[in-house]
């Protein structure tokens, strides 16, 4: 995917605004200050995404919150954590000790809520700033390997994937996750056209 510098900057700006709003909401909900940064945004094919995530965060189990969206553009937004980072994040947010038996039961609800706020923040800022209405499904939580987490098994190479590396700084812990936006075939072009009109 060859984007102009202006297009790339505009997409990064949309993501950063959404992440900033989501971080603000998270900070209101919990007693810790969360600093969220998106140092890197890349556009990849699903195959290259698989390779990149495999090299960076390993191929073992990942914790994922998934949000399907439709409207002017169609696709799936995912917040992806290595399982260990996910467990640490939940321990910090809930006050439970890592390894505590209660942690597993709290994990799904806590991560679903964090994912919901973060993904809705990102997609909401894209929708509002580009004046493109979107509808969302209820977010779902999954633990699985990279191979099984990626949508678009068919038309594998025609979809566009936006990978935003997210860094969560909480209480001096640096946790890494990824925000991954999968756009159905043709939808990313609609996004770019909307950016040109702003």
Task: Give keywords.
198 residues, alpha+beta, Chemotaxis protein chec, seven-stranded antiparallel β-sheet
Protein described:
This protein has 198 residues and is of the alpha+beta class. It has one domain (5-83, 114-197): CheC-like (Chemotaxis protein chec, 3-Layer(aba) Sandwich), CATH 3.40.1550. It is built from 6 helices and 7 strands, in the order αβαββααββαββα. Strands 1, 2, 3, 4, 5, 6 and 7 form a 7-stranded antiparallel sheet that branches. The longest helix has 29 residues, at 101-129. The chain is globular, with a radius of gyration of 16 Å.
Sum this structure up briefly.
This protein is of the alpha+beta class and 198 residues long. The protein has helices at residues 5-29, 46-57, 83-94, 101-129, 146-149, 187-197; strands at 34-44, 62-71, 75-82, 134-136, 140-144, 160-170, 173-183. A hairpin with a 3-residue loop joins strand 2 (62-71) and strand 3.
Q: Beta-sheet strand percentage?
A: 25-35%
**Quick one: how many beta strands?**
7
Alpha-carbon Rg, integer:
16 Å
- CATH superfamily membership: CheC-like
- What share of the residues lie within helices? 40-55%
Alpha-beta classification: alpha+beta
Element-by-element helix/strand order: HEHEEHHEEHEEH
What's the multimeric state?
A: single chain
Count of alpha/pi helices: 6
Describe the main β-sheet briefly. 7 strands, antiparallel
Number of domains: 1
Draw up the topology in text:
Blueprint: H1 5-29, E1 34-44, H2 46-57, E2 62-71, E3 75-82, H3 83-94, H4 101-129, E4 134-136, E5 140-144, H5 146-149, E6 160-170, E7 173-183, H6 187-197
Antiparallel strand pairs: 1-6, 2-3, 2-4, 2-5, 3-7, 6-7
Helix pairs in contact: 1-4, 3-4
């Amino acid at each position: 995917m060859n984007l102009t510098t202006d297009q790339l900057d505009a997409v990064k700006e949309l993501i950063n605004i959404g992440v900033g709003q989501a971080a603000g909401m998270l900070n209101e909900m919990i007693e810790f200050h969360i600093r969220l940064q998106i140092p890197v945004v890349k556009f990849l094919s699903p195959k290259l995404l698989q390779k990149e995530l495999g090299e960076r965060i390993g191929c073992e189990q990942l914790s994922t919150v998934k949000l399907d969206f439709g409207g002017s553009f169609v696709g799936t937004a995912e917040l992806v954590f290595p399982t260990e980072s996910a467990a640490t994040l939940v321990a910090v947010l809930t006050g439970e000790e890592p390894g505590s038996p209660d942690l597993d039961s709290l994990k799904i609800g806590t991560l679903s809520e964090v994912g919901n706020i973060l993904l809705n923040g990102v997609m909401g800022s894209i929708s509002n700033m580009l004046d493109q209405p979107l509808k969302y499904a209820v977010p779902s939580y999954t633990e699985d390997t990279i191979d099984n987490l990626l949508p678009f098994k068919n038309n594998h190479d025609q979809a566009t994937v936006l990978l935003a590396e997210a860094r969560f700084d909480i209480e001096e812990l640096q946790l890494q996750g990824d925000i991954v936006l999968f756009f159905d075939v043709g939808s990313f072009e609609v996004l770019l056209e909307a950016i040109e009109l702003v």
